[in-house]
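In response to a reviewer's request, we include the raw inputs and outputs for one of the modeled complexes. The two entities were modeled together in a single run.
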Amino acid sequence: MLATIARRLDGDLALAEDAVQDALLAATVEWGRRGLPEAPGAWLTTAAWHRALDRLRRERTARIHAPSLLPAQESYELEAAFERSAMDDDQLAMLFACCHPALEPRTRLALTLRSVAGLTVAEIARLLLVGEAALERSLVRARRKVRDARIPFRVPPDELLPERLAGVLRVVYLLFTAGHRSSRDDSGIGVDACAEAIRLARLIARLMPDAAETHGLLALLLLTDARRPARLGDDGGLVALDEQDRGRWDAERVAAGDAALAAALRLRPHGPYTVQAAIAATHARAGTFEETDWAAVAALYARLHELEPTPVVGAQPRRRDRPRRRPARRPGAARRARRRRPPRRLRPAPRRPRRAAAARRRRPRGRRGRRRRDRHERQRGRAPRARAPVRPRAERRPPRAAARPRQPRARVRTGVPGGTVRAIQLTGPLSIRTQPCERALPSGSAKLAPARPWIATRPGPPP
Amino acid sequence: MHYLLLLHTSTGSGPQPGTPEFDAEMARWGEVNRELRDAGVVVGASGLHVDATSTLRTRDGEPVLSDGPYAETTELLFSFYVLDVEDLDAAAAWAAKMPSAAYGAIEIRPMVHYEFR
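The model returned the following structure tokens for the whole complex.
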């Protein structure tokens, strides 16, 4: 292992030794917490290599500039300008293989988590809210397909790149979303997943700096993650944006996110991640909820809706890509149905509600009817039958169930089972309401608990 | 790596014989086939008679030959290619050039390699 690291470092054995020491130290902590990884040797080599790179980077940065004196923008570019390592290229190639369109969309995320992020099956199952056995099966199947169909491990050629990159970015976005959702979990997997998503986004942005959306996604993740310290209350409940303590937002993350956003805005074309990052940045820039530039937010949401014309910024394939639930009725269906009816004599006797109603009318009920019946009985020489006292009509009727308030409905789509979605309910042009939706929801239409709108994008003060 | 490309279409879709669209499509097929030949990736390929399929099953040791599967079924297999290319992306790139991909479907099946001696 030492040899591998040293060879990769052009024979810098001292640095290699330090890095291996660091890695061993990390292993005692990490393996104690999570158990032995599947390939401890490979784990150590990877860890040592990352630590060596970190040290190199730190030394070099310290030599060239004092990093604290640099504006965030310049340090972002400096980081991006660092030479790519073979390891990073391998990870990127692996990422493109795991997110290949020939794999089932749900499996792409799981495979990325397993093969690129190195999470265990148990951790992934908990993160994605799926059963371990089913997950294991789909992973086995996916790996077999990668091998047997020979899905390439490389950054795809230019003509395929836009489509494939979008797939990779989607998976990284979903990884972050899954982590964000389960960050309330005590195990810390959620936080790890968010960190891993940011690491991958950073890696992609560094290795593919010409695509605007790579920087846009990184900016979005950083700006969203910056709010994490303020997102949960002391009781573990969610804190809405307007009630969050903005002083607890991670200023460093906001600065890094802003720098990434600036990089994205210098490039074209801007996609949904860049626009969402710009929305997040607009919120981050406002000192208080009231100071938010709502006009800008509204304009950005309108742009987002142009780019992704779905009522929900979700994660699943668009509706039109999915098969229709019910086949269209063929012409003449009603006629055929009539023809299929059994002959009249075989049909059950139809109910005759009108005749029954008429009979009820002819036999007066209540006080009047009883008086008439009593008279009839008296005439026949019998004592009137004892009867329960008549209660007023209103009392007899069972109380009607209290009318329940109508729940707002919105179409909700989730990417992974239970992926966090922001259900954006369109209520008219330029008035988009967004609600946080942290519960696992199936695809399709779902009821949303009436909650305070997370963002009201109508220009002007919040409602 | 060998891939079997199964070209499916449904009855009545795509340009119909006798129309100028059909002639244009045939010209495009010619181009694709020339390109495939020049690249030297074709192991074997052919069009298939869609209405003349027979199926054989052995039952109790006896071969039973029957007609079908029939062309009335919506999906019909009208052609195949066996290509020798580097990976799935390369196979998919060739499939994307084939005109029938626009209205039909092209199944890409990685082939298990057997030696015939």
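As requested, we also summarize the result in words. Helices of chain B lie at 20-39, 88-97. The first strand of chain B starts at residue 2 and ends at 10.
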